[in-house]
Specification:
Structural class: mainly alpha
Largest sheet: none
Mean pLDDT: 86
Shape: globular
Radius of gyration: 22 Å
Strand content: under 5%
Oligomer: single chain
Distance between the termini: 41 Å
Low-confidence stretches: 245-256
């Protein structure tokens, strides 16, 4: 691996052009697939492969892309644009369109775009803090980093990664969730065990118990309870008195075992980022209310309630999605935004306000999680924080790259959304949001949410702020991926057996294999999505 003294800059002329081109490609891929299949593919590995291929073109200027750090900027660009265009922009603006309120598409796009940029900025300021440490799993980021490292060093590492990727491709072809299997090799065992149990209950609740945890809002209730406790725990980590924090190091919570001296974001920095972020969301919510024209539809009290609730919901949404993404590699952004919508309906906001609320909430979270993955990739490639100054400079370059990619995604959506909507190509989840708004809610739904919030809160409380077993259990309940539960639980069992037999020396090869599994699954999903899209 190369050891450049100064981290490559995104503003090098060729680098800027290349990253803009890959961002356009990523945005188009994301929009096309989310409207046809309802999912957003991970394009990080694709970006890394593109950069590796460019480096092998016999042109002097392109040899620079043998640098893993330049390759990292390319994967950051395409990944940010993919999730930004599809999840943070197209899904929000599809909601008012599906409701027939086409006049709200541009106001929603403005609000969603601002939320996306704030979302990513908050993650940048929180990454490698006590709340979101760089040492946590961030599994897709690990997979991309190991892929780039293998391409750079070759040898046994490349061979092991290649074996993992082939197994990942074959497993994915056989409908085995190889991402879930890979995550089990590198994530927190407690958190992932609860994630696997949640996935199992979601898959088998009907055949085993004749209960649908989704239709009865059980999964949503558990997430509400776990999410509330997780928010309180996050607040305690960031806002509690430092003297009390130091005393707490003697208790058993894993969160208190984090060595704060090794973190690159201090508690005051994280506190400031959260405070500024919430104020920014308040301003965006007010702007959406004004340009969306809903001020005239609500009383002053209701308007103030909408602004505060929308900002709070967006804020909580990104934190919950980020926590789930950090620990499991999965983020239930659609489902958590749906919970926000249910609360808004129970409060009594008018339909148009609900559409804007759902879009605003959905716009936060995906950019937050995806940038976490990208920064984790960079963190590994830069030596896991061994050189603090180099790590911070590299992270800054990734952040700027991501922001440029989000800008490209915004322009791409602005130019192309009409062509999608004119063909009635709207992300499928938008139709779920709209049908829910039109159907209305009932006291029975509120009762179910309240009842199941209690066990969710208890489980999250028992696990503590780092294990996040409540949030991960709820995440599993909200995800309907066939047989992913078996992939997670079998993967954890294999990991425990291997570690007991081989000890810590097995951790590195297992991580590389896991990266291969995830990379193979991502490649299969990407090419399978493109094939189906064309078909």
């Amino acid at each position: 691996m190369d050891n450049e003294k100064n981290h490559p800059s995104i503003f090098e002329p060729f680098a800027l052009v290349l990253n803009i081109v890959t961002a356009v490609l990523g945005a188009i891929i994301g929009m096309q697939i989310v409207t046809t299949l309802g999912v957003t593919p991970s394009t990080s590995i694709i970006g890394a492969l593109v950069a590796m291929l460019i480096a092998r073109i016999p042109v002097a200027m392109l040899r620079k892309y043998k640098s893993v750090h330049r390759q990292n900027l390319v994967q950051t660009s395409i990944s940010s644009a993919t999730f930004g265009a599809a999840n943070s922009l197209l899904i929000p603006i599809g909601i008012p369109f599906a409701m027939g309120a086409t006049n709200l598409v541009i106001p929603m796009l403005i609000g969603a775009a601002l939320a996306m940029f704030v979302d990513a900025a908050i993650l940048y300021k929180l990454f490698d803090s006590k709340l979101f440490p760089a040492s946590s799993t961030w599994a897709p980021g690990v997979a991309t980093a190991e892929s780039i490292k293998a391409g750079d060093t070759g040898g046994k590492r490349a061979g092991l990664l290649g074996v993992g990727a082939v197994v990942g491709l074959i497993g994915s072809y056989l409908n085995i969730s190889m991402s879930a299997f890979g995550v089990a090799f590198i994530g927190n065992i407690w958190a992932l065990s609860m994630f696997g149990i949640g996935l199992m209950i979601r898959q088998y609740s009907v055949p085993w118990f004749d209960i649908d945890v989704n239709k009865l809002y059980i999964a949503h209730g558990v997430m509400i309870g776990a999410g509330i406790v997780a928010l309180i725990q996050a607040g305690m980590l960031i806002f509690r008195n430092p003297s009390k924090s130091s005393k707490g190091k003697h208790n058993n919570h894993a969160a208190d075992e984090i060595d704060e001296s090794k973190l690159t974001r201090s508690v005051p920095e994280a506190r400031k980022a959260l405070s500024i972020g919430f104020v920014a969301y308040l301003v965006i919510a007010l702007l959406i209310a004004i340009i969306g024209g809903i001020i005239s539809e609500m009383s002053l009290g209701m308007l103030i309630g909408f602004i505060v609730f929308a900002a709070f919901a967006a804020f909580v949404h990104e934190l919950i999605v980020g926590i789930a993404a950090m620990h499991s590699g999965w983020f239930p952004a659609f489902a958590v935004a749906f919970i926000t919508l249910l609360f808004g309906m129970m409060i009594g906001f008018p339909p148009i306000a609900l559409a804007l609320l759902a879009g605003f909430s959905a716009a936060t979270g995906p950019a937050f999680a995806d940038m976490g993955y990208d920064l984790k990739t960079g963190y590994i490639l830069r030596g896991n924080g061994a050189n603090r100054e180099y790590e911070l400079e590299g992270r800054k370059q990734q952040y700027i790259t991501g922001m440029i990619a989000f800008g490209v995604a915004l322009l791409t959506v602005l130019v192309t959304y009409n062509s999608y909507f004119s063909q009635n190509l709207v992300p499928p989840i938008d139709k779920v949001y709209v049908s829910t708004i039109q159907a209305g809610t009932s006291s029975e739904v509120a009762k179910q949410l309240l009842i199941w919030a209690i066990p969710g809160a208890i489980v999250q409380l028992l696990g503590g702020p780092t294990r996040q077993i409540g949030v991960l259990f709820a995440t599993g309940l909200l995800i309907a991926t066939p047989n992913a539960c078996w992939a997670v639980l079998v993967g954890i069992a294999i990991r425990i057996i291997v570690l007991k037999a081989k000890g810590k020396e097995a951790e590195t090869p297992m991580s590389i294999l896991a990266a291969g599994f995830i990379a193979g699954d991502a490649l299969y999903s990407f090419f399978n999505s493109v094939f189906k899209m064309k078909k």
